[in-house]
Write a structure and sequence with these properties.
This protein has a six-stranded antiparallel barrel. The protein has a four-stranded antiparallel sheet with strand order 2-9-7-4. The chain has two domains: 62-74 and 318-460, Elongation Factor Tu (Ef-tu), domain 3 (Beta Barrel), CATH 2.40.30.170; 77-294, no CATH class. The chain is an alpha+beta fold and 466 residues long. The chain is built from 13 helices and 17 strands. The model is unreliable at 1-8, 380-384 and 456-466 (pLDDT under 50).
Length: 466
């Protein structure tokens, strides 16, 4: 065995030496990197990746998102702003019923810039305005309609609004003082103008009487002067008196015209002061409807131009709105589009048994809503807090157009079996939104954009700025 091993080593060593003596031989040989199993694996991987890309781009996946909604009309709403600073109190029509005639007159004054009122009537009207806005009435009106009751009645559409009548009063000592000072000055100017008018008219009558008599005297003097019974100088003196009376009459007429102008200006100033006080102190409805939104509490301090309430101008307050307000979380809103299907079920109703009411997304607001802007949209902070309850992020607003059963004035349900309790204004709903089928790539892109910061801010913080 040992001998065979030694012989083998010598044979191979000899062969190696012989090859070295012959020199290097360059031969071109193909290098085989992969064997058949490895090639098949690579092709399968590439095919899988290609298929995955095609699937990500073309495959459609239906996605459901949950949210909440509230049955409140967001169409045909009119925002009402404070005409001046002060403490605001929402009032019901029955509270101011005894002042009905006063408010009719106030509406005329507010909307007719050329309206003129007899001064005595204007004084009585101004006194009535001051009595209504006296701070003695402030606590009385607040006690009659506390904030909690006001919010409850607003949610149920129980506070009507009628064109030309106040739905609230703004109490302000500064506005009252400014109004009283303006009244005092303008009534004094009016009285002075009236006195000058009276005096000028009396002077005109006197001078005209004197002129008529003097003309007769001058006529007599003319005859006497022709017969040389009186001197030329005497005749000219009598003639100068006629000229003087004519001049006095002209001057008195000019004074009368100035006094008349001053009277008109004083009356105009009184009307302007009255209009300003009405605007600053009374929140007047400019359309028939009902209060749909209260932005401030009873007795709260408001500034001029700030939004204090909204009026819904729908003719029938009990008629369910075609469009309601819904909320979804921001991440869900990235995948939703106009026309996506919505199923809305009133909170407390068994969805498994009854299903829900059918609707579609009409509008999707692309930014989140803060609690303050949301309470303005939904009407009251109470409803807003109920609607956003349970949401982890700032919600996005969606407007949902509901499908209607016009014969029964109700929404169409997904099942024939409906709950015994009908849907009413103010009901809070849980919603399920089915996004139109999305590809996996469409689902991933918003997440990537949000992760790398290309999505921009998602919460709108400037909603309170005008």
């Amino acid at each position: 065995m040992i001998i065979w091993k030694s012989m083998s080593q010598n044979i191979f060593r000899k062969a190696a030496l012989e090859e070295k003596k012959k020199g290097d031989k360059l031969e071109s040989r193909q290098v085989q990197i992969f064997r058949l199993p490895t090639k098949a694996l690579l092709i399968a991987s590439l095919a899988s990746a290609t298929g995955g890309i095609i699937w990500a781009c073309l495959a459609k996946i239906p996605i459901n998102y949950s949210g909440t909604a509230v049955v409140l009309s967001v169409d045909n709403q009119m925002d009402v702003l404070a005409g001046g600073p002060g403490r605001f109190v929402l009032t019901k029509s029955e509270t101011l019923k005894k002042h009905k005639d006063i408010f009719k007159e106030a509406w005329k004054i507010q909307n007719d810039p050329d309206l003129q009122i007899e001064p005595r009537k204007l004084a009585v009207f101004a006194e009535s305005m001051l009595n209504i806005t006296d701070f003695a009435n402030f606590e009385k009106f607040v006690d009659k309609l506390p904030t909690g009751i006001a919010l409850r009645d607003i949610a149920a559409s129980r506070i009507p609004a009628k064109t030309g009548y106040p739905v609230g009063i703004i109490f302000s000592d500064d506005a009252r003082q400014s109004f009283v000072e303006s009244l005092k000055k303008n009534f004094e100017d009016l009285a002075d103008a009236e006195a000058r008018k009276t005096r000028s008219a009396a002077l005109i009558d006197n001078y005209q009487t004197l002129l008529a008599g003097q003309k007769k005297i001058l006529k007599s003097y003319a005859k006497l002067e022709n017969k040389n019974y009186v001197s030329k100088v005497s005749f000219l003196e009598q003639k100068s008196l006629v000229t003087n009376y004519i001049s006095q009459i002209a001057q008195s007429k000019s004074t009368l015209e100035e006094a008349e102008t001053d009277k008109i200006m004083a009356l105009k100033s009184l009307m302007i002061a009255m209009q300003e006080y009405i605007v600053k102190s009374f929140v007047t409805a400019e359309a028939d409807g009902y209060i749909a939104n209260l932005s401030v509490g009873q007795g709260s301090v408001v500034s001029e131009g700030s939004e204090i309430l909204s009026i819904s101008t729908r003719e029938n307050k009990d008629h369910l709105p075609d469009v309601i307000a819904g909320l979804v979380e921001t991440k869900a809103s990235n995948h939703l589009n106009k026309g996506d299907h919505v199923i809305a079920t009133p909170v407390g109703v068994n969805k498994a048994e009854y299903g829900g009411m059918v609707g579609r997304i009409k509008t999707l607001v692309p930014f989140g809503e803060s609690s303050k802007t949301l309470s303005k949209i939904l009407g009251t902070s109470t409803v807003a807090s109920q609607t956003v309850e349970g949401m982890n992020s700032t919600p996005n607003l969606i407007l949902i157009e509901m499908e209607r059963d016009e014969e029964k004035d109700d929404y169409i349900w997904t099942s024939k079996n409906k709950p015994t309790r009908s849907t009413n204004l103010g009901d809070v709903l849980s919603i399920s939104v089915t996004a139109e089928k999305k590809t996996p790539l469409q689902l991933v892109i918003p997440i990537v954009k949000e992760t790398i910061g290309l999505d921009g801010p998602t919460t709108f913080t400037g909603g309170d700025k005008k």
